[in-house]
Amino acid sequence: MASSLLPTIQQALCGTLGPATVHNMTALANETLSATIIQPALPGDFSSLLTLLFSFSALRDWLKLIVIGGVFESCRRLATTAYRRFIDSFFITATFDQGDDSYDWMMIWLSKQPSWAEARDLQISTKSFGLNSSAVLVPGEEEDASSLIRGTRKLAFLPSISTTQSMWYKRRWMTITRSQESTGYYNRPEDKLSIRIMTRHHVRLNSLLLEAKTEYMAAQEHSISIYVSDSTNDWRHVASRPKRPLRSIVLDPGIKDLLIDDARDFLASKTWYSARGIPFRRGYLLYGAPGSGKTSIIHSLAGELGLDVYIISLSRAGMDDTALSSLISDLPEKCIALMEDIDAAFTQSLNRDAPTPHSSGSSSSSPDGSPDSPRAHEPARTSSRVSLSGLLNALDGVGAQEGRILFATTNKYTSLDPALCRPGRMDIHLEFRLASKYQARELYRCFYLPEDEDNEDEKEDDKESVDSGYSSADNAKLIDLETSSEASVSSGSSSPVSEKVAVVGRSHRDRAPKLSRSKVSQLAEEFADAIPERQFSMAGLQGYLMAYKTRPFEAVRAVTTWIEKEGRQRSTIVAALET
Ligand SMILES: Nc1ncnc2c1ncn2[C@@H]1O[C@H](COP(=O)(O)OP(=O)(O)OP(=O)(O)O)[C@@H](O)[C@H]1O
User: Fold this and answer.
1) What residues line ligand 1, using a CB cutoff of 6 Å?
2) Which intervals carry biased composition (Basic residues) (predicted)?
3) 23 located within any domain
4) Global pTM?
5) Which residue of 284, 538, 541, 544 sits with most ligand 1 atoms within 8 Å of its CB, as the best mutation to test the pocket?
6) Co-location of 362 and 249 in the same domain
7) Same domain for 424 and 305?
8) Cα(408)–Cα(284) distance, rounded to whole angstroms?
């Protein structure tokens, strides 16, 4: 084709360049074409094909590159596989996700490893990792025995994020890698901890986990863990609270024993239940006046039985029958599930037969605290989509967890559907009433009895003239503060009184008079005599005594005035509600 075009080009060029020049150019072009246009015959065998291929220098270079690259890549893959095989055979890798209990165990364990004190790249953390939070001590800082920071923990030194650190664990090489990943709907960054131990067997890993868990539990010994459900319907550890001693809850005789004995008996009876085909679950319904100790006794029992508390909030946004059922089936085997104000989660009555608007609403009640109070008739505003049948199914349907203890509380017992209260769902119903004289007396004793019971006999007796301890100018100022605050004290009220009391309460034990047990008992009798039977809530009495926590004598002297004042306030509230 190139040769067929030549005459045409020649003619065109002759007109412009002249025939001699064109002739020379044509000769040159013919030479070049004959040199570049090769029409080889196809090679007959492989070696001639290779020869042909390698006759092009560029192609040859490309092929060399491909072959060398391929060899390198194969070597790399081989090395990676060999490395993985080696790691798999000689190391065990375990990962821990933030939000899981095991992550907290490991972080606390890591924070206690001395090797971090010398690390060059580390993270300083004041996080408590689910432990009961307390003040944090920086290395070199001395714990002040008399101060507020008792029960302190050390500042945590942790491996920093995105680096791999190594250490020895029981003569085994171990690497620790922390990374962050965005997870969930909101792309919230969550930590991931990866631990690699040089060992062929799980024994070493198990021993590490056991050690971490034991240390964590030891640190948790005086706390209970509280879990709530998050928006993705997973249980999340939100807090650890100090255990509340059972003796600090004052109930009418027999109630505490009944509860604790029944719960203990239940926890020890798994085989008894399964032998008889009875679902291994127990439900307690605590109902009655607000501020009578329903929540407190549950908290205290959890500590006594060593169980964690899982709070099921029926009125949480996004809670519906499916979510409730999945939450209840995800409960661990031994735990306390707590549904507070079980009546308040429903927009309608819990009575399936006769829904009445007044039976729902806020959990508060009348000044006398009776369940059928006027305020019980307020309509509820709740976004819960839990239906009664959904709740009933979740409590004892096929998916319901075995071994759990359910506590439900309500201020409106009469508005609950009998199906919810029947044995099997709520096995024991306990009424919590307003304070009896007995409770008032015991609460007073609780406040003023010497804490160190063993040394009580040595305590100096009966310094009656003053409430003692207020000799310095500072203390005089504190008395003024407290006295001036008394005017505004009312049952269950909080600030500003409690604020002031909190400030002066910093060292109230030192300022309180040292009374003998017999003196406290005598004052307690006088206090109880003044308190009318079943008129005040325990929370109200506690609020009153808080204002006098260093002045037991005055607490007794002023109680009549306080009762009169409370009476007047109540009459005003009742009159306002009636109009
Ligand atoms: N029986 C009691 N003994 C000791 N303290 C009590 C008692 N009852 C209530 N209190 C104190 O009153 C406060 C409120 O108690 P709690 O929350 O247990 O009451 P409640 O019955 O659950 O109230 P509500 O029905 O309003 O939730 C707590 O600080 C608790 O210490």
Assistant:
1) 249-251, 290-296, 409, 411, 432, 538-539, 542
2) 506-517
3) no
4) 0.67
5) 538
6) yes
7) yes
8) 6
Looking at the structure, tell me whether residues 214 and 240 fall in a common domain.
no
Using alpha carbons, select from 347, 327, 315 the residue that is nearest to residue 406.
327
From the CA of 248, give the closest atom in ligand 1.
4
Q: How far is the CA of 373 from the centre of ligand 1 (A)?
A: 19
Kindly report the protein residue whose alpha carbon is nearest to atom 12 of ligand 1: 539
Higher pLDDT, 475 or 75: 75
* Cα 538 to middle of ligand 1, angstroms: 6
The verdict on residue 362 lying in a domain is yes
User: Atom 13 (ligand 1): residue with closest C-alpha?
Assistant: 539
Q: In degrees rounded to 5, what are phi and psi of residue 435?
A: -65, 135
Give me the pLDDT at residue 144, please.
54
Which residue, judged by its Cα, is nearest atom 11 of ligand 1? 539
- Domain end residue (candidates: 196, 221, 246): 221
**Domains in the chain, number:** 3
Domain boundaries, position 309: 235-432
Residue nearest atom 16 of ligand 1, based on CA coordinates: 293
| ipTM value for the complex | 0.98
Q: Tell me how far the alpha carbon of residue 297 lies from the centroid of ligand 1, in angstroms.
A: 8
Q: Is residue 50 part of a domain?
A: no
Q: What are phi and psi of 98, to 5 degrees?
A: -60, 140
Least-confidence region, from 76-80, 291-295, 331-335, 528-532: 331-335
Higher pLDDT, residue 381 or 424? 424
Q: Does residue 477 register a pLDDT over 50?
A: no
Q: What is the pLDDT of residue 456?
A: 46
Centre of ligand 1 to C-alpha 408, Å, is 15
pLDDT of residue 314: 87
Q: Where does the pLDDT of residue 334 fall: very low under 50, low under 70, confident under 90, or very high at 90 and above?
A: confident
| pLDDT above 60 (res 478) | no
Same domain, 354 and 502: no
Distance CA 170, CA 168 (A): 6
Q: What is the pLDDT of residues 462-471, one digit of tens each?
A: 444 344 333 3
Is 445 found in the same domain as 505? yes
Helix (H) / strand (E) containing 165:
strand 164-169
* Residue 323's CATH number: 3.40.50.300
Write out 51-81 in H/E/C secondary structure. Answer: HHHCCCHHHHHHHHHHHHHHHHHHHHHHHHH
Model confidence band, residue 19 (pLDDT cutoffs 50, 70, 90): low
